[in-house]
Design goal:
Chain lengths: 233, 222, 52
């Protein structure tokens, strides 16, 4: 098995930045004028959304790279990114309503951004479900790559069509309007949260990628054992 | 391109003989409408508001059945293997299947959509004509993604069951734009917004036809 | 300090999700590593038997 660089530095870096981000979100950043304390959810809700979107970028890149090179490491990148994407999208979908309830009194308003992320969540899940039900690794990688590309190119279309829909039929916006100004300290806290999440994303993808490698190795070993058994008899 | 038309001809001939796909879409579509009626029991005013949704839910779910069947027939007849052996461009295979699926869906919709309008007391020639671009663009988008996803799903262990899970999230923009456009036509509202939705449909159609044409070879390779 | 409870709930959710996923990866990783070791041993056995 290929020797791997230790992930410890990356994990420690992620932990450190996350700690800084938590301090930033809770203590360093000033309380927002209109929404009050509840606005602090923003630092980890919006950044989770950005990670969810980046995940699609990586799924797309990995899928294209796999179809171009047939090197399974790109398939591993796509798979790991999709899983991490699912985690971050889930965070967005759960923290959004938690934010909405105190502010609007209702859990869900089919707000443009949250609705888009809901659809994105299903796209992630569909990709992973397909992978679960194709047996042969090469075939699975190829079909997943196609679905990954077709799903990823949908993301901008989904986002814009839903936003246009909400422009026609306005409703309460969850989580502050687009580009509601960020004072400097808030920007710092936001960046810290973003970097922290990004490092965590990298950790997840690395770990998941190694898992996939190990699974491949298990399959290869099992096959060799079968072959040995057959050559004996 | 000639290969694509040959495929379309073959599919249509097959359908004329077996009559499996179009009746399936029609009957299931009508069934969805009946169920929706019991689900919502709309009053006169409400009918206008929910009719667009009913139309496209019927098309979406019945269409999924039709697409599944179409892909399954390919598997059963090993029709694809024969074509793959020949030096046919893979994208032509996709175009042929796409055109055939569009044809199946549109034929069914020619009956289904007027039927729904009648059932909801919204029928008028003007409405039908005005709806045509929406129906066509929406169907093309649905079939563009549906054709390739149906072939992918047929390749999995879950087979047809996987198609709705793969397809529905992806075609949300189509569904959304089509329902909005249909609503605008039925309620006889401004043309300006109708064009914005039709534009979204056109963009989706173009993007997915191009992308699927390029990617289809990977789906059918061995 | 209105809303502090909700902020806390949101952060709890975030960390639960991230933590659970991390744990799953770790657990699967260790299970797979064990399986790799077992299979490697099995393979050596099979090869030895073949030689003898």
């Amino acid at each position: 098995m290929r020797a791997h660089r230790s992930l410890a530095p990356l994990i420690w870096a992620a932990g450190l930045v996350v700690a800084v981000a938590l301090y930033g979100a809770f203590l360093y950043a000033p309380t927002e004028k209109t929404m009050g304390t509840i606005q602090r959810i923003f630092y980890f809700h919006a950044t989770a959304g950005m990670m969810g979107l980046f995940a699609f970028l990586f799924v797309f890149a990995g899928s294209v790279a796999f179809l171009a090179t047939r090197n399974l490491r790109w398939d591993r990148l796509a798979e790991a990114s999709a899983e991490a994407g699912l985690v971050f999208n889930s965070i967005v979908l759960v923290t959004g309503p938690i934010w909405a309830k105190p502010v609007w009194g209702i859990w869900w308003t089919w707000d443009a951004r949250l609705t888009s992320f809901f659809v994105l969540w299903f796209l992630c899940w569909a990709y992973l479900l397909l992978r679960a039900y194709v047996a042969r690794p090469a075939r699975r990688a190829t079909l997943s790559a196609v679905v990954g590309i077709l799903g990823a190119i949908d993301v901008p279309i989904v986002y814009f069509s839903i936003r246009w829909w909400r422009t026609q039929h306005p409703a309460p916006v969850i989580g502050g309007g687009d580009g509601s100004g960020l004072a400097a300290p808030m920007m710092h806290a936001f960046l810290a949260a973003f970097v922290g999440y990004a490092l965590l994303f990298a950790v997840f993808v690395s770990l998941r990628g190694r898992l996939a490698e190990a699974e491949t190795e298990v399959d290869a070993l099992a096959r060799e054992i079968r072959d040995e058994g057959r050559s004996l008899s | 391109m000639r290969a694509a038309w040959a495929i379309v001809r073959r599919e249509l001939q097959g359908e004329l003989r077996s009559r499996e796909i179009i009746p399936t879409i029609l009957v299931f579509g009508a069934l969805v409408v009946v169920v929706m009626n019991f689900a919502f029991e709309p009053s006169r005013e409400e009918s206008e508001r929910i009719a667009p949704g009913v139309i496209w839910i019927a098309i979406a779910f019945a269409g999924i059945l039709g697409l599944s069947r179409s892909a399954a027939l390919d598997e059963e007849n090993a029709a694809l293997d024969g074509l793959l052996a020949a030096p046919v461009e893979r994208s032509s295979l996709y175009h042929g299947k796409l055109l055939a699926n569009c044809a199946f869906l549109l034929v069914a919709e020619v009956v289904l959509v007027p039927l729904i309008l009648v059932l909801y007391n919204l029928a008028a020639w003007r409405t039908l004509v005005a709806l045509a671009p929406t129906i066509v663009l929406g169907t093309i988008g649905f079939a563009a993604a549906g054709t390739i996803f149906a072939t992918i799903a047929a390749n999995s262990k879950l087979r047809e069951v996987l198609l709705p899970i793969l397809l529905l999230p992806v075609v949300i923009p189509v569904f959304l734009a089509a329902v909005e456009a249909t609503g605008i036509v039925i309620r006889n509202e401004g043309v300006r917004y109708l064009y914005s939705w039709l534009r979204i449909l056109a963009v989706f159609d173009l993007v997915y036809i191009v992308a699927s044409s390029l990617l289809f070879e990977f789906v059918v390779e061995d | 300090m209105k809303g502090l409870g909700s902020v806390f709930a949101a952060y709890l959710v975030v960390w639960v999700f991230l933590f659970v996923y991390m744990m799953r990866l770790d657990a699967k990783g260790r299970a797979l590593a064990r399986e790799v070791e077992d299979l490697k041993r099995e393979l050596q056995e099979a090869r030895r038997k073949g030689g003898a």
